[in-house]
Specification:
This is Helix-turn-helix domain-containing protein. By secondary structure, the chain is mainly alpha-helical. The protein contains 21 helices and no strands.
Length: 425
């Protein structure tokens, strides 16, 4: 029997939804109850959670009465885990520090500091997924950055901010399953980076375009973008981690093209650069570290059919990736489980799959959902094995809950090669 969603789970999945935020700003509790009911929470469960009678619940939902007392707003905030700020209340004792507060901080900083806003968006994205944050980043671009681009007195720095936030919007669109929109953002970010004179960031955008080409199954275009980025990077300050990322994306493309020797050589150059890296940094670039390299290396060897090597790198990626990076950890585990399936170690695949079921159902990453679906499809071929069959039943139940909680950001199914990298914005 399907487990119905709890009010708290549904609220958690909607915290980035402007409809919910507008309802909470207006303190329209009747509309809140109707929204939660439309997402599968029964009126009986709503009344029980709110500690009111169903008759009173219907009065609120039908507009016959409104919540007016402060104590009732506090009671509902605690019952449904609504952050106090969204109802005009003080922070509740149970509120997490992230991702909710990180998103709120980003929205505040967006008014005054592009870099601080981007850092806050990035931190929230790593934990909550890009689907919940895309509209906030686009709003910052439209309201805060675009007017300054049109101001003749602004310098190149605003073009750098525009490039960085536009590229971030592209990654969040990609995480939302909207790859055409992501490509459009990357196409806009590259000339903005060039205008700003920031060669490293322009090379970084080329690496992102390489990744997106791989996702669409165009390995030749992915190789082109990786080489283009490498050429751009040569004209700017030397950032070993950036060059390592470009070599790694080239390796991914070469592996997809079946060029084993060159792909492994490119990975070796990337690892050498990271091993020698001495803390290079860039204000707008997201870091490329050994955990990311391990994740990408697993995919390279997986594409090359070298499953033993792929397994070692996939295990290293899971080991290195901290729990504060919920999406990256989930994607690394998906790759590990897929490698186990390819090696026909079904017990190990089911074990990793069980860990994946603990991934928050409200993680706003359509990319993770698609990768989980791809893993399910691989395991379906082995459904005659009882542990796999049991896992698939548990997965189906969890998938229905996840689809319900992410219904507002889940686009129609898309194509793509299903590469499960863990690149972050």
């Amino acid at each position: 029997m399907d487990q119905p969603p709890s009010p708290r789970d549904v609220v958690a999945g909607l915290l980035g939804d402007e409809r919910l935020r507008a309802i909470l700003r207006a303190r329209d509790i009747g509309a809140l109850f109707k929204l939660l009911n439309s997402r599968g929470v029964s009126t009986r469960r709503l009344a029980a959670a709110a500690d009111i009678t169903q008759g009173r619940l219907y009065d609120y939902m039908n507009g016959r009465t409104r919540v007016e007392k402060l104590s009732m707003f506090e009671q509902l905030a605690d019952a449904f885990h609504i952050p106090g700020a969204l109802l005009g209340l003080a922070a509740r004792p149970w509120e997490p520090t992230a991702p909710v507060r990180a998103v709120a901080l980003a929205e505040v900083l967006a008014e005054s500091d592009d870099l601080a806003a981007m850092d806050a968006f990035r931190e929230a994205d790593r934990q909550a997924g890009g689907g919940r944050l895309y509209s906030a980043v686009v709003r910052h671009l439209r309201v805060s950055v675009a007017p300054r681009l049109m101001d003749g007195t602004t310098g190149p720095s605003v073009f750098g901010a525009a490039a960085a936030l536009t590229e971030m919007a592209g990654w969040m669109a990609h995480d939302s399953g909207q790859d055409r929109l992501a490509a459009a953002h990357f196409a806009k970010a590259l000339p903005l980076a060039r205008i700003s004179g920031d060669q490293p960031f322009a090379a970084h955008v080329a690496a992102s375009s390489s990744h997106l080409s791989l996702q669409s199954g165009d390995a030749k275009q992915a190789a082109h973008w990786a080489l283009t980025g490498t050429e751009i990077a040569r004209d700017g300050p030397h950032l070993p981690s950036l060059t390592a990322r470009l070599y790694t994306m080239h390796a991914r493309a070469l592996a997809a093209l079946g060029q084993s020797g060159p792909a492994v050589d490119a990975l070796g150059r990337a690892r050498t650069l990271l091993d020698r890296e001495s803390g290079d940094s860039h204000p707008w670039l997201s870091p490329f570290d050994h955990a990311a390299l391990a994740s990408e290396s697993a995919l390279v060897f997986k594409d090359l059919g070298r499953h033993g090597d792929a397994l070692g790198h996939a295990q290293e990626a899971v080991r290195l990736r901290g729990h504060g990076r919920a999406r990256s950890l989930a994607l690394s585990r998906i790759t590990l489980a897929a490698v186990h399936v390819q090696r026909r170690d079904l017990d190990a695949a089911v074990s990793v799959g069980a860990e994946l079921l603990a991934t928050s159902p409200t993680l706003g990453s359509v990319r993770v959902v698609h990768q989980l679906d791809s893993l399910r499809d691989r395991l379906t071929d082995h459904a005659e094995y009882p542990p796999v069959r049991e896992y698939l039943a548990r997965f189906a139940e969890a998938r229905r809950t996840r689809a319900l909680l992410l219904a507002d950001i889940m686009p129609p199914s898309r194509g793509g090669n299903g590469s499960g990298d863990d690149t972050d914005t």
